[in-house]
Model the fold of this input.
Amino acid sequence: MTAAFSAALEASVRLGVRQGLAQGLAIGSNGVIYAIWALIAWYCSRLVMYHGAKGGTAHAAGACIVTGGRALCSGLYSMRYLVEAMAAAERIKGVIGRKPGIDSGSEEGEEMEEVKGEVEFRGVNFAYPARPETGVLKGFSLKVTAGSTVALVGGSGSGKSTALALLQRLYDPASGLVLMDGVDLRKLRLKWVREQMGMVSQEPVLFATTIKENVLFGKEDATVEEVVAAAMAANAHDFISKLPEGLTNMFGVPKFPPQKKLNPSFENEILL
Done:
């Protein structure tokens, strides 16, 4: 492991040596300015003595040459920032112009008339695009019947979150199938698939708006009755009903009366 780490640093060491040499030459060359002044003074004296040039004019011309040269050198120091900006802009352009393999806005694909909720992973192999050499799922197979509760247990990096990401089609498996009610997810309309499921991640994101509008992010055209039903299903309705403004209460600003205290258990329920 130590040898591999040292080998990986070789390129950085070579780059650092070249940068140090270039900086040393740049700093050390500042002393050349005195030699340039001496050369210009000698040459200007020759112009005055043998070519009839005016002393003030010759000195002003020499001073402009030296000052302009120093300004040019100082300006070159900024070239590194220009080069870095150009490189960054090129990477940003690549990201903007990149066409994702999974188009979340695509309207192509089928829709099932009825969703039972049976999920199956069949011989799935997957590795993240950033680390194609590191397999996360290898021959992963799992069948979850509708209405059942399943827990995926494992250490960090074992593929628990990856399985959910494949189910949401944030990625497609390298091989194998991810099925919903026996249908390959890649044959279904992506936006419709995501509308059929809900997910509460380990670190949920809540927006600085009303509780109702936070719930509506899951279904934009939901009615008030559906929002209430969702809150009851999440075991959060009792907590929400205790807020001064109910569903229209701004999240993060509970405004509880001074005599009342927020029950930590209720707080955990709404966050989850």
About this structure: Confidence is low (pLDDT under 50) at residues 259-272. Strands lie at 119-126, 137-144, 175-180, 183-184. The two ends are 40 Å apart (CA to CA). The longest strand covers residues 119-126.
